[in-house]
Input
Amino acid sequence: MQYTKNQLYQIAVQSLESKNVKQAIEACRLLNVQFPAFFEGWHITAELYFKLNKPETSLLSIAHALALQPAEPRVTLQKVECLLAMQKLVEARELLLEIAKTNQRNIKKWKKQLSLYVLDKTSMLLGVQELRKEALLQTELAVSLDPKNPILLYNLSTGLRFAGKIERSEAVLDKCLALNPFDFEAQAMRSSLRKQTKESNHIHELESILEDKKLPVQGKVNICYGLAKEYDDLGEFKKSFSYLQQGAKNRRARMSYDVNNEINTIDTIKNTYQKEMFEKNIVGNVNEEAIFIIGLPRTGTTLVERILGSHSDVYAAGELSNFSLELVKQINVNTDTSTLSLTELVKKSASVDFASLGLNYINSTKPSTGHTKRFIDKLPINMLYAGLIHLALPNAKIINMTRHPMAACYAVYKQLFKDAYPFSYDLQDLAKYYIAYHRLIQHWKTVIPGVMYDVKYEDMVHNQQAQSQALLTFCDLPWQDQCLRFHENKSASTTASAAQVRLPIYNTSIDRWREYSQQLRPLQVMLEQAGISCD
Output
């Protein structure tokens, strides 16, 4: 049967949406062969291969599309996304700057696109540290062209929050919500921007939305987390936890997740990386630039990053996934990882060339890094790879953030994460994961003794100067007074702590969990039965 180009295009689009990869690939192939001058055919092909995690192949289709329609907004930003996926940050930044110029030359053309594909890409770019300044400028321009577009306003507010412009971020969110009060992510984010007061809060507005019987589940989740935050600010703890529990339960119900799979992976890591592994004559890469901050989220990792990142010899690179990505690439040298389970991946990882892994990791962080003596990789989940990091980069510094177990668990439980940490929405899952995490950290301390430096969040809060001095000494850095004034650091933060890091150290969150000790009691019992002290 002979299809028209529009029929083939619809087949490609529908196949992509339904995740029928084989049919999508064939439809795109026929489109490109039979209708090589059809722009949308190359565009959908580029989108397909990017979603298949093949950015290099996607770029080939993008080149064909841009040859037909140079500087077309959707495809140009798609090219930026491919370059980012390939860690080509310099090229991505240069292209983004060119896009900004194109915006100004072709305002009508871009305005037409801003309510479509460009919005999502601009939002994505705001999350990339090296491109954030340019992306924020681009978002400002977009809002000036289309000031009543709530999606654009939300993106702008997000960028302003990352940049520490909290008051303006809230003002922009107010405009966004005036246009679309059912933007549930915006509602939740507004609640998190500042401490709410009895005189100034959004509780009535949020509870009114929650009464809507047609409210989608994800909307209910966001509103419940917003209410939990606002009631906690007001000291109404029973109401706060009730909404928190409701939001977490709804979030967990939408997930296909088994915490035991993660625990099995952690157990495999411990079994694979026994002491004998570290007694072998494994030679890693001698580079000493990297400082890894590991632990659970919401335990003070961002605070320590800001303190260290205020030093003139340190660059805070953010939460990088580079180490695990480079590890998989190393395993791929001899094995097709696409067919392996997580536990099989762990077992295969013990045979990689650790010196190459270290070198490739360092190279993958450039050109963002390399302009200071040291840089920080603050991805908490790197705690899974602490032993591997030491094998690959024996001169790297590894800082292990700790916090009172109950404070750590409550801090994780009350946070609505975008995609990560699925164990955080159920107290039993959370307890099981915390126990596995705790045992893994103890394992690393046994097999690589003296390598990790523990920083206790509570100690840092109560004695900032002494703890900061000890931290700098561990990192072989001379003392600089600006490390005590980390809250004056102008660099962006994209973590859940983006608003808090603009403030001096405060101690109000240290024992906050005790206000919920009764509700958290089942979790505490599980931790104590596992031998974890919660005194």
Observations:
- Confidence is low (pLDDT under 50) at residues 110-120, 492-499.
